[in-house]
Amino acid sequence: MNSKIKSIINIIGFYIGWWGCVLGAANDLPYFGPAVMVLFLIVHYYLFVSDIQEIYLVLIIGTIGTITDSLLFLSGSFIYAGAYSNEILIAPMWITAMWAGFASTVNHSMSWLKDKWLLMVICGVVFGPVAFFTGEKFGAIEFHFSALFSVLVIAIVYGTLMPAIYFLNRHLGLDE
To answer: Which domain range does residue 83 map to?
Structure first.
């Protein structure tokens, strides 16, 4: 299978999982999206993964993303639909699934970002807030602070995380 077709399958699969997570959480089906994302990851690994390090990347990024979004959650900036409970202030499983799915794009449909460190920061600054505000528009997230403050916080966090993800990818030897 040629690399363009692989990239298209990879990004379409990720977006189907991403939308499953958002729409599932917004419609009281918080485990629907993670189930869709797991199916995507199984197909992804079956078709594309030849290095065990990529599985480590997905596990590490899923963990880092969950911790990061849990800290944002704990800050009181917003509330996630589909949270585990009112007492457990950890980002819900659908957030972890999104991070795991995103990690699977790093060496495939998003590989064009490798070694473009400034562009990684810009993408994080722009698309991090876009993703959050899309989630908010569909009812998966509820913001507690002003839109400007929320954008600034998310932009800083995601502008930092994007290059960190690619740095980790390089550290794991996946940067071809």
So the answer is: 3-171
